[in-house]
Amino acid sequence: MNGAVMIDTAIHLLLLLLFPPLLLGVINKTKAFFAGRTGAPLLQPYHDIVKLFRKDVVLSSSTTWIFRAGPVISLATMLLAGLLVPLGRFEAPISFAGDFILFAYLFALGRFFTTTAALDTGSAFEGMGASREVTFSFLSEPAFFFALLVLAKEAGSLDLNAMLHGPEGGVRASSLAPMVLVALGLFIVLLAETCRIPVDDPNTHLELTMVHEAMALDHSGPLFGTILYSSAVKLFILGSVLLHVVAPFGTGRPLIDWPLFCAELAALAAAIGVLESVMARLRMRRVPYLLTGALLCCGAGFTLLVR
Amino acid sequence: MISSFVLVGASAAALSGVPGLFLPRTSPLGQRIATLLMEVAALLGTIGAASVLAGSGGFAVELPWPAASGATLGIDALGAFFLVPIFLMGGLGSIYGLGYWPQGRNPRSARRLQLFWGLLTAGMALLVVARQAFSFLLGWETMALSAFFLITTEDDREECRTAGWIYLIATHIGTLLLFGFFALWRRTTGSFALQPVAAGTLGSGAMSLLFFLALVAFGLKAGIMPLHFWLPGAHANAPSHVSAMLSGVMLKMGIYGLLRFLSLVPDSPASWGGLILALGAVSGLFGVVFAIAQHDVKRLLAYHSVENIGIILMGLGLALLGRARGQSSLLVLGLAGALLHVWNHGLFKPLLFFGAGSVLRRTGTRQLDRLGGLAKLMPWTAALFLAGAVAICGLPPLNGFVSELLVYLGAARPLVDAASGAPAAVLAVPVLAMIGALAVACFVKVYGAVFLGSARSLLPPGRPGEQGESPASMIGPMLALAALCAFIGVAPSAIVPALEAAIASWSPAGAATSPGLLGLAPLREVGLASAALVALVAIIVAATRRLGRSGARVGTWDCGYARPTSRMQYTASSFGQPIAGMFAWVLRPRLHRPRVEGVFPGAATLESHVDDATLDRVIVPVSNLIARRFGWFRRFQQGLVQSYVLYILIAVIALLCTLVPFGDIWAAVFAR
Q1: pLDDT (tens digit, 9 = 90+) per residue, A75-124?
Q2: Looking at residue A22, what is its pLDDT?
Q3: Of the partner residues B396, B553, B577, the one whose CB lies closest to the CB of residue A61
Q4: What is the extent of the structural domain holding A225?
Q5: Would residue B35 count as lying in a domain?
Q6: Which of B386, B393, B556 sits opposite A62 (nearest CB)?
Q7: Which one, of B614, B520, B599, B607, lies nearest residue B327 by Cα?
Q8: Residue B111 Cα, gap to closest chain A Cα (Å)
Q9: Does B374 map to a domain?
Q10: What is the mean pLDDT of residues B303-329?
Q11: CA B597 distance to own-chain centroid
Q12: Residue B72 — φ and ψ, nearest 5°?
């Protein structure tokens, strides 16, 4: 491993560990701007997480070790998935043919433990949130796989690095239409997986309408901090996957490409903030239609490509 | 030769229940002898099978029995691969039975259960080593009939008898088709021996007919989606270790039969592969959809067997496509996925059924909506069931992920290898993804409803000394199965030699031209990634160990409800309702809802039920129709012995008439 790769890997790790909460800050700042408020400082999520880690934990008397394992395992899956995904023009630290399947299944493992931890409290609200989470995921997961298949077909490889970096010399003109469809589908999947409007409202105050927040109602202190942090990491990972499709730019010079990647990611967060400001949350019964739309987008993209 | 240990093991298994028959009903000695013999059988059989998989030669013996007219037995790597789960489960299930179905508590049924348990194991072993139609059918029927007696162990319950009869009818339809299959095989190949036929010797019509007969006969046993109708009832009503054996091992005998037949016809057309792939996708998807709608934990697990058989068939379909198109990489990936899933399902499904058995033994109910909060009462069962649930969902770092990964890679192969020419097979990838996500939904529901939260109904007090966890004889086998799941998950490259040996014995030509499994699938990397995941969890646990230590215990916050009760929890039915609602077009749930009238309505009940797609909606109505239309035939069935004797007499006279030379008589009469 030569020096340049080692430095890139180190930057990858640092960004993966430290950058994600900033995205939440950018989203909140954008929303505050649209609402005509000053809003919390950009670095507020870091303060929140640090404060939560210093707090004590209150546990429900009906819970078992699963309740504590949920946040821990979902953070571990997110960090491992973060090592599989290439950031910007750089290579991912871990990469092998077929790693995209591991990548997707790590998300599923995280979901398994988040939802079981929610059910561990025996609360109706958390059960409701868990039920919605698994329901939405059974539509978003095939959509995600369809999108990855399009990228694999285009790149002629089953390796996440090659798939996301695209073929040599850029995407063919004939595959532009599938790429647009995939970008749209991936964006909806990103919103659903990271529980943003229009699928879920992270700031909602009515438990009956919550998805992700409902599952974390009983988590407190460091456990809740872990959940907050891993959802930021999830946004970071899925955002960098999406950036490969919508903004495959690069100069080949690391000194420019790393800041460029961070700026792109921040811009994506700002775009999500804009979307959250101008849209209302969909009614819960309508969300499956949106996700089916994402599935159809990605499926249609795939059909266009292999036809 | 070490491989002939298999025969010794099978004989020991067949005889294991016999000593118990001569001992008193209540004496625990017979069960101990049976278990000991089963362990000996398991050890010998596994060693024998492992030696064949490791590359030592097999054996070939002729049964010294004229009635079977030269029935030969032999073993190859494909057979050895299927023998491993047979003997493993035979041994582990018998230990589990010591705690779950002790002789002392079940004097009426335990001796019978042990006898047929051994016979079932031996029958399956015989079936796998058979090299000729008669010995194959002998093994097949031993297995089928032993399974019938095992399913009807609790024959004092009507539900159990019904399930047994349905199973018996289904299995005998399969046997009848197998008779037809072997008769046709004899007619087209000239012998009853199960030897590969050279390409082009069978006509396409005969090949198609053979394939159809094999697909339906073996598909009935394996539980492919429209033919799965016997399976939920049988698995739900059998004792739990029997369910584990049926689901984990006996269903695979259908897969084995199909694989064996396909290995004998090396020039199968690509359309067979496409058909099996499509059947696999249907079984996989609708198996898990029906599972989500179940309220009974063992019926739910049974539908998951249909799902897993679907995944195995998808791998097999890819392998057939690869063989027909001369694409050895597709062949190796698909078949490796199918074979490894046979082993994996033989590990995690028994683990789950053992767990369900522990729960049933303690609580006396299989209804998900009456359970809850058992993780505190039975911590070992809960942790081991969780391992099984993670494994069956195909999640890393356990074994289910490895076999699903192989099927995924096979299905995605045409994307990167334009020559493989099966672009439609790629659609298996999103189908598998949907199956995986639905399986996660289903097992989160089961695990949450059974083990988490708080109990939804009052637990029975339990016998003295049995208020908590199950005995070690039940936990031990579960621990062994979970350890094997973890081993295959973290070190998948360790079993590559066994897989490659079985693939080479299935298709020597295909295996010879492929770059090897490790060259096609990133099994080493997956093993390392799984280990990394475990390490990462350990690091995070160690790093956060000191945080929030006091862990004050209060009631569930539940948004400020002061006194949440266990009846306010989300139930399993409501958890699965959104998905069941989206699939209502195939599930067609029947809902009996109360009519709420007046200002103060009285107590009301709500009931929902999902009928089986084949049994309740096709077979039962059609059978009823036939019974009505043929009502007139009943007048021949009077119950009078005299009239039956008359029928026999008429039949004998009719048969004798065939000997009378009517032609000669005719000629003689008219010659005059």
Answers
A1: 999 999 999 999 988 999 999 999 999 999 999 999 999 999 999 998 88
A2: 96
A3: B553
A4: 3-36+46-306
A5: no
A6: B556
A7: B520
A8: 40
A9: yes
A10: 94
A11: 47
A12: -110, 150
Q: Where among B576, B600, B615 does a domain terminate?
A: B576
Would you state the pLDDT for residue B66? 65
Residue found by looking up tokens 């409800």 in the block? B561
> Which of A62, A72, A299 is opposite residue B541, by nearest beta carbon?
A72
Q: Is residue A110 part of a domain?
A: yes
How are beta strands B552-554 and A58-60 bridged, if at all? parallel
Contact A115 B522 (CB under 8 A): no
- How far B520 CA lies from chain A's nearest CA (Å)? 9
In a domain, B173, yes or no: no
Q: What is the ipTM of this complex?
A: 0.96
Q: How far is B612 from chain A (nearest CA, A)?
A: 22
Q: In Å, what is the CA distance from B170 to each residue of A214, B163, B306?
A: 47, 11, 16
SS3 B484: helix
Shortest CA distance from A305: residue in chain B: B415
Task: Sort out which chain A residues have CB atoms less than 8 A from B522's CB and list them.
Answer: 96-99
A41 falls within a domain: no
Q: Distances in Å between the alpha carbon of B161 and those of B103, B165, B166, B466, B615?
A: 22, 6, 9, 29, 16
Which residue from A minimizes the CA distance to B579? Answer: A135
- Cβ separation B431–A142 shorter than 8 A: yes
Interface probe for A, chosen from B289, B330, B376, B536 (most Cβ of A below 10 Å), is: B536
What's the alpha-carbon Rg for chain B, to the nearest Å? 27
The tokens of B657 are what? Answer: 């008439």
With beta carbons under 8 A apart, name residues in chain A contacting B436: 105, 108, 141
d(CA B591, CA B584): 12
Where do we find the tokens 């080493």?
Answer: B524
State how many domains chain B has: 2
Cβ-contact B373, B455 below 8 angstroms? yes
pLDDT tens column, B509-527? 888 888 888 888 999 999 9
Structural domains of chain A, count: 1
Domain membership flag for residue A142: yes
Residue of A73, A98, A127 with shortest CB distance to B521: A98
Last residue of a domain, one of B546, B576, B606: B576
Residue range of the domain that includes B640: 630-671
Is residue B643, in this structure, part of any structural domain at all? yes
Model pTM score? 0.95
The reply to whether A32 falls in a domain is: yes
What is the per-residue pLDDT for B512?
82
CA distance B394 to B315: 15
Contact between chains at B574 and A127 (C-beta distance less than 8 A): yes
Cross-chain Cβ contact A59/B578 below 8 Å: no
Pair B107, B123: CB distance under 8 Å: no
d(CA B445, CA B67): 53
CB atoms within 10 A of CB B577: 18
**One-letter amino acid identity for A230?**
S
Instruction: List, as one string, the DSSP characters of B483-525.
Output: HHHHHHHH-GGGGHHHHHHHHHHH-HHHHHHS--HHHHS-HHH
